[in-house]
Amino acid sequence: MLRAVIPRKNILSSIRWISTTQKVKTGMDPKVQDVANKEMSEFWDKNAKLDRPISPHVFIYKWQETNTFSILHRISGVGMYCGIICLAMPYAFLPYSFPAYITALKSMKLGSALLFSTKFTIALPLSYHGLNGIRHLFWDFGYGVNSKSIRISAFFLGFAAFALASGLAYF
User: Fold this and answer.
1) In this structure, is the dihedral angle defined by the CA atoms of residues 75, 77, 81 and 86, taken in order, positive or negative?
2) Helix, strand, or coil here: 2?
3) Is this structure's pTM higher than 0.70?
4) Which of 62, 79, 86, 89 is 20 to 30 Å from 96 by CA-CA measure?
5) What is the share, in percent, of the chain residues with pLDDT greater than 90?
């Protein structure tokens, strides 16, 4: 088992100090709060005496492909949500209709490379999140839930999302 750089006893004593010395106004009966603080102090003392490890942190685990794809799925979901908000707010408050702004963008002659990269930036989270959602639906029905299938589908998902986003950006 890996241990943190900071000595464990120092962490336990600092947590115990914070939990037992802070009096927070919670609306809870002070007697109940004192009992809760006493129980919490006993809990940390018992764990220190038994030399139990503190709950492991994310950084002690071996990094896997599935971690990466899970985090990317969440980031793409948040990114799409923020993108929708950023596109919806101007549409709701600007004076002209949406097609007028599209016509104005086309008249700027920004170049095909900039247009392709903008479309790709919008299409990549959409395609990745959608394809990963389909992969999760397969998992819900019990298909491809073993370790080898998860790795294969993860790499296929990355390739397919990139290819789909490129195709969508091209047209």
Assistant:
1) positive
2) coil
3) no
4) 79
5) 29
Where on the phi/psi map is residue 3: left (φ > 0), alpha (ψ -120 to 50), or beta? beta
pLDDT digits (tens, 9 = 90+) for 122-144: 999 999 999 999 999 999 998 98
The structure tokens listed for 161 are 């999302």
Q: Residue 128 in contact with residue 77, Cβ under 8 Å?
A: no
Measured CA to CA, the distance from residue 37 to residue 34 in angstroms comes to: 5
Q: How far is CA 77 from CA 30, 64, 70, 86, in A?
A: 44, 21, 11, 14
CB contact at 8 A, 127 and 167: no
